[in-house]
Amino acid sequence: MRVPGKILCILMLLLHKSSQQQVFNDAETLYLPNNYDIGWMRTLDDNKLISDITIPGTHDSLALHGGPAAECQAWLLEDQLNAGIRYFDLRVSGDELKVVHGPISQHTTFFEAFNTIKEFLSRFQTETVLVRLKHSSKFPDQVISQLENDSKSWVRNDIPRIGDVRGNVVFVQKNSFHLGISLHETDKPGDYKVGNVGKKKDKIISHLNEAVETCRTGYVVLNYSSGTGFPFLRVDNSPKHLAKEINPWLYNNLKGAYEEKKKFCFGVIAMDFPGFDLIQMVINFNKQVGI
Q: What is the CATH number of the domain that holds 259?
């Protein structure tokens, strides 16, 4: 795929290495810097729409179990929150809303995750967290009713301002789940299948540039840097193996864009196995002057 010249200039791959940065993580323990401010959203303008900012997220956020083909993350939900993740992708099954990755149980439920997020937001009331729910069939009516009546949940379709949803969960529509905001997705069907890493990188650049054009138009944009190698049964095609190659490359490209000192908005960037410094690089785009 040919990338336009000005776009390539914006998202160019820097020549220096990122080996000293933690851009990929597969360790279970999160180590935060002593001076790290968990509540990074406190500096955002209350009047800014959540569609106008750049948000670090995780793909298949609670896929911590099941071996190389199933695992997409290493940190528990609370650690992801503390590290700065503000978008979560949860796949659930059955009336009990058990969290799964495909057929593999992740040994928790949506409501356990939901309560963890709400407890975090009770401590860090400057923050807001986006949650996307995907059910393998249909959501129970009582769950929909419960969320509609939850005072700390944004279930309307209109895009809220930051000041409207501090301390709240913003739900995101997906398939049979019709509560919350809708997304503009840059990924096309099948983009998660990676047969050639170079082509995957081209797609990520294309999607991020589509996000730049779409942000601030009333849509929250969703981009994925994640993927699964194809064919699936090869060990070196696991989500972890791919993230180990993609994440340093993504960090360098985002750093190059950040150093352009322009007001970029990429929407949500959902990642597999992101390291702390990669998450902070995504957050940095909200610190540009005038963002």
A: 3.20.20.190
Question: How many Cβ atoms sit within 10 Å of the Cβ of residue 252?
Answer: 21
Chain centroid, CA 9 distance in Å: 25
**What range does the domain containing 249 cover?**
41-284
Grouping H, G, I as helix, E, B as strand and the rest as coil, residue 4 is coil
Structure pTM? 0.91
Answer yes or no: is 21 within a domain. no
Tens-digit pLDDT string for the chain (291 aa): 444 544 444 444 333 343 468 999 999 999 999 999 999 999 999 999 999 999 999 999 999 999 998 999 999 999 999 999 999 999 999 999 999 999 999 999 999 999 999 999 999 999 999 999 999 888 899 999 999 999 999 999 999 999 999 999 999 999 889 999 999 999 998 898 898 899 999 999 999 999 999 998 888 999 999 998 766 555 568 999 999 999 999 999 999 999 998 889 999 999 999 999 999 999 999 987 554
Q: What is the dihedral of CA 16, 21, 23, 25, to 10 degrees?
A: 140
Q: State the CB neighbour count (10 A cutoff) for residue 65.
A: 15
In a domain, 34, yes or no: no
Number of domains making up the chain: 1
Asked whether residue 7 is assigned to any structural domain, the reply reads: no
Whether 16 is in a domain gets the answer no
Cα 84 to Cα 93: distance, rounded to the nearest angstrom: 27
